[in-house]
Amino acid sequence: MKQINPFQLKVISSPELFCDRETELDILLDHVRNGAHTLLISPRRYGKTSLIEIAFRQLRSEGVVCLLADLYRVDSADTLVQTIAAALIKGLHWKPDKTLTERLRGLFRSMVPQITIGEKSISVAFQYSKTSDELPPLDDVMDAIGRFAQESGKRVCVAFDEFQEITELPRSKHIEGIMREYIQRQEGVSYIFAGSRRRILTKMFREKKRPFFKLAFTVPLPEIPEEDFTQYVIDRFAKTGKTCERLAAQKIYKLSRGYPYYIQKLAFLSWGRTVVRCSRPTVEKAHRALLEMESGEFEAIWQGLSLVQKQVLRALAFEPTASPYAMSYVTRHRFGSTSGLRKALMVLEDKDFVERYPRTDEYRLTDPYLAYWMREAPERRISLE
Ligand SMILES: Nc1ncnc2c1ncn2[C@@H]1O[C@H](COP(=O)(O)OP(=O)(O)O)[C@@H](O)[C@H]1O
Ligand SMILES: [Mg+2]
Q: Which domain holds residue 147?
């Protein structure tokens, strides 16, 4: 029988595929059980959504009603309201019986759910009129969460994934203000705010004048430790009757720099190239293939940058540094002005292309494969003549 590749490139929701993260999981569960709110931050594809899924599994078994609203595609206050309402309705798992319409109507004050029953699924759309200040009824949907918790006596956990997206919306401060008002007042509801644009999110929760100031405990997700992830790779190979040499597994970890998504992808490609035994040359070939696969995305990132941003990104790909403003660094990389450098660095950090790595305090490229890609393409160096 043909074996199925044991590595996973999608969000992980089953505990046996989930490596490590015991500490973060415990903290998260503890916050939810105690009604506290959590800010969960990491670079993209480090495992935030997977961790939420794993936590939800546990919480549901304890009777907590869990709602996941992915705000990644939210592009207006209207889509925000609809996304939260949809998460609420989905998370309630109400039976589609005769009383459903009635129950849904009871959930909201001003929004009128309209239910369409299809052959296999039920869909819900909402009708509402805008409030006097032209905002859709965000207060109604936020209030519905709190009232549900109160009336049912159940604990509720709401995860807002890619939460930073609300800062891009028109009148975002006003939206933040409304959300905070309800979050702060509700009892029995615990919120998880997850996101990858760390600078934006941290500012949101740390700046005094922002509505979310001090609203949540921060839980950063770092890399998964080398020992645990190498063993995981070895075990997953063994499960399918193949062998991965320890040195090869360590190479996977090193090349991916502990980045969960890339470890899985590099292991996935290495497994595909292995008949019986995976050794370092197999990983090396898989690494080349991975770099090739990602290059389209990197090209698009590169095209979207300004000239100074390109210069800064290139400099950091070749030489990560804790002191980008040091005279020697500025001269070596031929930056025109430090103010231009400062601005570019800020934008790159906001987009999470660049991070300040806490262990060494160095600025570096968040994505190790973007750094490889840049280092290997000398034509992408910019000549300043
Ligand atoms: N704890 C983990 N164990 C194994 N693989 C993981 C783990 N966390 C994340 N991954 C890998 O990283 C990928 C990205 O995870 P995801 O939860 O989508 O990250 P994020 O929400 O931070 O973008 C997953 O598809 C999986 O391959
Ligand atoms: Mg995610």
A: 21-220
56 to 11, 50, 62: CA distances (angstroms): 13, 10, 10
**Mean pLDDT over residues 134-161, rounded?**
94
Length of the chain in terms of residues written: 385
Q: State if residue 259 touches ligand 1 by the CB under 6 angstroms criterion.
A: no
Summary mean pLDDT of the chain: 93
Contact in structure between 363 and 324 (CB atoms under 8 Å)? yes
State yes or no: pLDDT of 384 exceeds 80.
no
Alpha carbon distance 61, 236 (integer Å): 27
Indicate whether 12 belongs to any domain. no
Please list, in sequence order, all residues whose beta carbon lies within 8 angstroms of the beta carbon of residue 159, skipping any fewer than 6 positions away. Answer: 52, 56, 66, 67, 68, 69, 191, 192, 193, 194
Instruction: Tell me how many domains the chain contains.
Output: 3
Residue range 329-356, pLDDT digits in tens: 999 999 988 999 999 999 999 999 999 9
Question: Hey, which of 10, 46, 271 would you mutate to test ligand 1's pocket, going by the most ligand atoms within 8 Å of its Cβ?
Answer: 46
Over residues 311-334, the pLDDT tens digits come to: 999 999 999 999 999 999 999 999
Ligand 1 atom nearest residue 264's Cα: 27
Write down which residue in 254, 271, 299 finishes a domain.
Answer: 299
Does the Cβ of 264 fall within 6 Å of ligand 1?
Answer: yes
Distance CA 27, CA 6 (A): 28
Ligand 1 atom index nearest CA of 20: 1
pLDDT in tens, 38-72: 999 999 999 999 999 999 999 999 999 999 999 99
Residue 75 in any domain: the answer is yes
| For ligand 1, atom 12: residue with the closest CA | 261
Ligand 1 pocket member 256 (CB < 6 A): no
